[in-house]
Amino acid sequence: MDIILKTINNLPVINVNIFKRQKHVDLQFEAGAFAFEDMDGNPLFEDMQRQGRWRIKVKQAKSTPYIYFLILKESDSRASLEKDLGSFGQNVTIEHVGGTILIDNRKVTANDKFMLIAGPYTSEREARHHSKDFQQVNHCRIYKKASDKSKGILEIFDPHYEVFTEVKNSFRLVPQKEGAYFKIKHFAICHQGDTRIEHKDIAYQGVLRIGIDEDCTQFGINEIAIEDYLKGVLLSELNGTMQPEYIKSLAIAARSQIFARIGQMHKQEGFDFCSDSHCLRYYGTGEKNETIDRVLAETKGMILSSGKLVCNAYFSYSCGGHTENASGVWLNDSVDYIKGKPDTLETDAFSFNLQKEKDVHKWILGRPEVLCKTDTQSPDDRKQLSSDAFRWEVFYTRSELEEIIYEKTGEELGIIYELIPAKRGVSGRMKEIEILSSLKNITIKGELNIRSAFSTTLLNSSCFIIEPELDMDGVPISFTFIGAGKGHGVGLCKVGAAKMAQDGKPYTEILSHYFERCKIKGIY
Predict the structure, then answer these.
(1) Could you state, in order of their start, the residue ranges of all structural domains in the chain?
(2) What's the predicted TM-score (pTM) here?
(3) CA-CA distances (angstroms) from residue 203 to 181, 200, 287, 288, 294?
(4) Tag placement on the chain: N or C end, fewer CB within 10 Å?
């Protein structure tokens, strides 16, 4: 299938879901800088010069149910998945996503992907319930489709209710001036692995489409040029002032992710990407940053490629000293251009096999000299990247851990006797862990499932060792988790890349270190 990207000023445009489940939305912008239009392009107000602040509410709505599927496996090859169909039983099918990406009728890449999916299910809760049938726990991946569009009436009015209108189903806020910004007031940002919610006024560029979602509340989709979107991604990913060469490496990796994933993530939901870490974090473009503007101009259209394909150039916060294979974390069996490696430029000095428990213990407790190692003497840029990422500890009493596992998995274990790492990836990240307990023994599989099952939020990574404290009878009293890294560890390590930039390495060398099998090229 073809995915034809619209262009504005010769730049490709994407659609990003920036909010959902909002009962009301407050917008602010310079009077006359934007106009409200229905979906046919007709103005909703004759005069937009008077007001610059508006509220949108749902007056009435009728939702359309989604249907839900569990993603069991992914591949670039349909034939590869057809071999596995029979082993998963009934109600398992193959879904084709992605396609040939075209800009101005010019082929940029083909990112066809095939997914083995189970379902359909009538709710996300039902899908998660059945995830246990396929040895997935809390963080099973959900694929959803809308059977139709939700419908209803939206109200648009100014704060004094002097100017008012109603519109069916959805509408657009369209810029009337080049470079104009609109603000979403009191926007709630939820941080992954954190219960904290931050409220901010966030400024965006481009078009905003507001409609009614499946919960009879509002969604907002930002139609924006990719280069402007990337500015927002970099503002959301960076902390303070960073070295330009580091920002360049991150910009090219993020742009590569966009083109590698268009049409794969949320197409059936009516947009290309969401704005949290499921895709790329994106919290507006309004903050001024001359360095980021300059970096984007200098790297415009540059991506990483593997042959004729754009690389899905993953990055994470800190690899902990060794990056991971993409296939060691996700369900895709064919991402062979990203291989795990020691995060050091002196690879000959590396003598550990991190798939062996003895070496993992030495590695984690030894704090090796690698690029992403942080300490109190680290350069300013690395101080801005949290020092709890390289090595970390979490302590639980046995009863606390039993309660957490029950809350996350629904499994009643009784007394936990032992936690046994069963399988590790090349970075030491656990892919499987066995829990031996008084009522039953269970195995938890998958990097994200493991990080979720042993934390009220999310463990920094699945690369950890467990040190139990035992009572006189040999029964655990408590468990201390000692870990390495923050995030999945695949691809570019942000802390390590920042160190390379601090040491004067150019972005080309940074990217070739983390993506050895990929080349940099321009696509527009």
Answers:
(1) 66-146, 226-313+491-524, 316-489
(2) 0.91
(3) 6, 10, 8, 11, 20
(4) N
